[in-house]
Design goal:
The complex is a heterodimer of chains A (about 400) and B (about 500).
Chain A (H helix, E strand, L loop, with lengths): L1 H12 L1 H20 L7 H26 L7 H17 L5 H25 L4 H20 L5 E2 L3 H8 L16 H27 L7 H24 L5 H19 L1 H11 L1 H6 L4 H27 L1 E2 L7 H11 L11 H21 L3 H22 L4
Antiparallel strand pairs in A: 1-2
Chain B lengths: L3 E12 L2 E12 L3 E6 L5 H8 L9 E6 L2 E2 L5 H7 L1 E4 L11 H5 L6 E2 L2 E2 L1 H14 L15 H14 L4 E5 L7 H16 L3 E5 L3 H7 L2 E6 L2 E7 L5 H9 L18 E12 L4 E12 L3 E6 L5 H8 L7 E8 L2 E3 L4 H6 L2 E4 L3 H5 L6 H6 L7 E2 L2 E2 L1 H14 L16 H13 L5 E5 L7 H16 L3 E5 L3 H7 L2 E6 L2 E7 L5 H8 L2
Helix pairs in contact in B: 4-5
The chains are: A mainly alpha (about 400), B alpha/beta (about 500).
The complex binds adenosine-5'-triphosphate and magnesium ion.
Magnesium ion (MG) binds next to helix 1 of chain B.
């Protein structure tokens, strides 16, 4: 009785934070039932993660853009275009993948910087500036793919990014059919999570800050460990961690670290929270704008690379609607449309929600038309939920 | 005493971690001016937000009787319908809209389905006349100073058919003359049968205008006094629970001869408004000195501070700025901060604080480098710093993890001050530093200022409260219409002399 009361209270107070995890969980559970388990199969989950990759990295960048009260509509086609550039670099200029990839990322940064110039220096609203970018990159993709149509990529290293898996520890014979290295990573992640959570809780207690009641804290830890453990087990049961998943994880961890632990991160959220106050606090708002759009451009490049390598080619249609999926992912993940609030990890969950919907409905054989409607409804529901649970007092 | 128009009974309101009101009872008689006083965080604004429906029925316990009827307000529109209008401590106008649009926002003058703009402008003009504000109603609110915005707020309230007008610290951003006008205005309204509740930290005006005063302390009603019973000392005693004998701490001579800041022939043009806002300003500040900048609201004191502090609004500047003898050209507030200058803004909500962040993040913001190692913030150090300011400035909050938007107005101001003290500047510019701050806390802030100059800091204090200028500064400059209209040692200054120069 008492236990349930505390549980309810904790859930009520933190509903915003946990809401999207619960949503993801519910969506996955529903599809697992409706597809008679196919959805939760190792193979599908690995696929799902790989499909989410290119949207997830865009969503990470978009999170910061929205946090500083802007928007970037150009990143979808920018990503598609940069994927084509990478393809051309390898197939026509004969660059190796380890040069083509950094070149693409650098071009992405450049593109982002141009947007930032328009927004910060010329004071053009980001919506308009990036809408122009949207049109320009749409055209640019057509220009570069005009002569050849689809550009086939034959570089095996590059294609591995979207299709390959991390190697397993050679010579281990226990647990046949299970990817041991993936399993080890999963266990390490759980250990790390548990230790860092306990550590931060202890520190908070030392300062007399509010923390979760002990039993709730344990439940949270168990839940999170089970989640990571479960996903790890599923992945390990197929071919293990894909390179795409590694890329997304690395990007997420870096951005999570930057946004939560560094001066730069604080400055970004300060600019989003109140640009005038940030400026008067000595923060160079223009510089932050450059950094955020630059990072967005770079991630658009990465997104294009993930996509092109997955298809092993650059196509004329790459990039369509990616930006909207990324924006939707960010909002589902709890980023505030008013700016200043939003977590990178949340947006990743948001991307998973979006892609789970697609994947699950595909498995169920639901037509593309209804898929759009369903995704729209989920987005609306997520934002309504977000607004309704905000600022309860 | 007339029959009560309002009775609030046993009101209790809790926020997570804070009991803002416990069992408060509050009665207002028909046609009176009733003042509500108490320390920062005592619960005054919360009580009024309950009355006006901001915290809707069910979010608190207790009863509200208005006009003899039990009222359950679920939003401001409900209380407005009943004839209650509230003017918040933090102004709530739409800056990008014109004055007339703001006055009739949500209460549009209609002609069928359409808004009758001609009639709106005409009526807005009448309302402005009522509050004695002589401006073009077609101006955008953004272009007005805080003082005039306040009057627009009142005009807006008057445009509704109010029986009970609530003003939360209406004069905190007004200068003496404007405050006088406002108080006169309230008396006029009283003649016309409007009942008034006013929250104020300016006890002199409370005594001048109130028929009845209720004192709140720590969320409880301490007492209700009638006009003939009140004196300033008594109010203070009820408010803080002990006697406070001095309003200003003793100042020692701390001024040295060294000039730490000087501007020469300083002029500024605002390119977006296309007009000159500062003209040929010459002034200086010595080490260990408190220099007061007196003047009317809108006289250009804030603009002067901003133009020195890295010029964030990108005025076109001419003239020379010397900091510690070195000619400086600050291209950004960061440059000014690095050179040892700090500026505590006048409008804490607008450009001072980040309301959606917590106390510790706000305090550390301008000086994150100090608590960071190679770009990584040390969270423990941050909490420690924030807690130090929490106790030294006596910031009332359950923890430094509380969002600043949840603090009372006065405590927000203390957070803003703490943020800039953490920068440990050599030159501190304070823009209306005690606006909305209670007597006890004012004394604390004055004491801090005194200590700071003793340690060799130099302070420029912009203030519209003449008594504060006279009580705290060593020297006064009077600013009028973007020019320095006069300078005098405080020993020679009087309120009359300053006002004469300021209004010239
Ligand atoms: N939304 C909220 N969430 C949490 N605490 C709150 C919230 N609003 C107010 N409080 C707390 O309730 C108490 C009373 O606040 P209130 O704003 O009513 O004070 P006040 O008397 O108006 O003070 P001031 O003179 O500084 O304006 C304070 O401790 C404040 O921190
Ligand atoms: Mg208040």
């Amino acid at each position: 009785m008492n236990f349930f009361n505390t549980a309810r209270k904790v859930l009520q107070q933190n509903i915003r934070e946990y809401g999207m995890y619960i949503a993801l969980f519910v969506i996955m559970a529903i599809f697992t039932v409706t597809t008679k388990g196919t959805f939760i199969s190792s193979r599908n989950i690995v696929n799902l993660v790989n499909q989410t990759g290119y949207i997830a990295v865009l969503a990470v960048g978009m999170t910061l853009v929205i946090v500083i009260r802007h928007i970037d509509l150009s990143v979808g086609f920018l990503g598609g275009f940069l994927g084509a550039v990478a393809a051309i670099a390898m197939s026509q200029w004969n660059l190796p993948a380890y040069l083509a990839v950094p070149l693409t990322l650098a071009l992405g940064i450049l593109a982002g910087t141009i947007i930032a110039f328009l927004v910060a220096q010329m004071k053009i609203p980001a919506f308009v500036a990036t809408l122009a970018g949207w049109l320009i990159y749409r055209g640019a993709i057509l220009v570069v793919t005009e002569s050849t149509g689809t550009i086939v990529i034959s570089d095996p290293t590059f294609n591995a990014i979207g299709n390959g898996f991390i190697p397993d520890i050679p010579g281990l014979t226990i647990l046949p059919g299970i990817h041991k290295l993936t399993l080890i990573f999963g266990v390490l992640a759980i250990i790390f999570l548990v230790f860092s959570e306990i550590n931060s809780r202890k520190k908070k207690q030392a300062y007399n800050f509010e923390v979760l009641p002990t039993e709730m804290f344990i439940i949270k830890l168990v839940f999170m460990s089970a989640l990571i453990g479960g996903i790890t087990w599923l992945l390990a049961g197929y071919q293990g961690l894909s390179w795409t998943a590694v890329v997304v994880l690395v990007v997420t961890i870096i951005y999570h670290f930057i946004t939560t632990q560094t001066v730069l991160g604080r400055h970004i959220y300060a600019v989003g929270g109140n640009p005038e106050a940030a400026e008067l606090s000595g923060i160079n708002v223009k510089r932050i704008t450059y950094i955020v759009f630059g990072s967005m451009g770079m991630l658009a490049g990465l997104s294009g690379i993930l996509f092109a390598s997955r298809l092993q080619s650059a196509t004329t249609t790459a990039g369509g609607l990616w930006e909207l999926d990324a924006i939707a992912a960010a909002f589902i993940g709890g980023v505030s449309p008013a700016g200043g609030i939003g977590k990178v990890a949340g947006s990743i969950i948001g991307a998973l929600v979006m892609l789970s919907l697609t994947s699950g409905m595909n498995l169920m054989g639901i037509g593309i038309s209804y898929q759009y409607i369903a995704r729209g409804a989920v987005l609306a529901a997520a934002v309504i939920f977000d607004v309704k649970t905000r600022g309860k007092g | 005493m007339n029959a009560p128009i309002l009775e609030m009974k046993n009101i209790t309101k809790e926020f997570p971690g804070v009991k803002a009101l416990s069992n408060v009872s509050f009665q207002v008689a028909q046609g009176e001016i009733h003042c509500l006083v108490g320390e920062n965080g005592a619960g005054k604004s919360t009580l009024m937000k309950i009355l006006s429906g901001v915290y809707s029925h069910g979010n608190y316990t207790g009863d509200i009787l208005f006009n003899g009827q039990v009222q359950n307000f679920f939003g401001i529109s409900d209380s407005e319908k009943a004839g209650i209008a509230i003017i918040y401590q933090e102004l709530a106008l739409v800056p990008e809209m014109t004055v007339y649009e703001n006055i009739f926002l949500g209460n549009e003058v209609r002609n069928g389905f359409l808004v009758d703009w001609n009639e709106t402008v005409k009526k807005a003009g009448e309302m402005l006349k009522k509050v004695k504000l002589d401006i073009n109603p077609a101006l955008k609110v953004r272009e007005l100073g805080v003082g005039k915005q306040q009057l627009v707020e009142i005009a807006k309230a008057l445009s509704k058919n109010v029986k009970l007008l609530i003003l939360d610290e209406p004069t905190s951003s007004l200068n003496e003359t404007d405050s006088e006008n406002l108080l006169k205005l309230l008396r006029d309204l009283k003649e016309q049968g409007v009942t008034c509740i006013m929250i104020s930290h300016k006890l002199k005006e409370v005594i001048k205008i109130a028929d009845t005063v209720t004192v709140l302390r720590d969320g409880e009603t301490i007492c209700t006094l009638r006009a003939d019973e009140i004196s300033e000392n008594m109010l203070i005693k009820h408010m803080v629970g002990r006697e406070i004998n001095n309003i200003y701490p003793k100042r020692e001579k701390t001024v040295s001869q060294e000039i730490v800041l000087e501007v020469k022939n300083w002029s500024a043009t605002n390119p977006s408004l296309g007009r000159t806002i500062l003209k040929d300003i010459n002034f200086n500040l010595k080490k260990g000195e408190i220099v007061g900048l007196a003047g009317l609201i809108g006289s250009g004191r804030t603009e002067l501070a901003l133009s020195i502090f890295g010029n964030p609004d990108e005025y076109q500047l001419s003239g020379d700025l010397y900091v510690k003898g070195k000619k400086q050209h600050f291209a950004h507030p960061r440059d000014a901060i690095n050179a040892g200058v700090a500026y505590v803004t006048e409008d804490r909500k607008g450009d001072g604080l980040i309301l959606i962040q917590d106390v510790k993040q706000n305090i550390s913001l301008a000086n994150l480098r100090q608590i960071a190692d190679r770009g990584v913030v040390n969270n423990n150090a941050e909490v420690k710093v924030a807690n130090e300011y929490k106790s030294s400035l006596n910031i009332k909050t359950p923890s430094v993890e509380q969002l600043v938007s949840n603090l009372s107005g006065g405590n927000q101001q203390k957070v803003a001050l703490g943020k800039w003290l953490f920068v440990s500047p050599e030159i501190l510019i304070l823009d209306e530093p005690t606006r909305g701050i209670d007597v006890g806390a004012k004394y604390e802030i004055y004491t801090i200022m005194t200590d700071l100059v003793k340690q060799g800091m130099s302070i420029i204090m912009i203030s519209s409260e003449l008594s504060e200028i006279l009580g705290m500064s060593d020297r006064v400059y009077i600013v009028a219409s973007g020019k320095i209209a006069g300078e005098m040692a405080t020993a020679e200054a009087t309120q009359e002399k300053i006002m004469r120069l300021a209004t010239n």
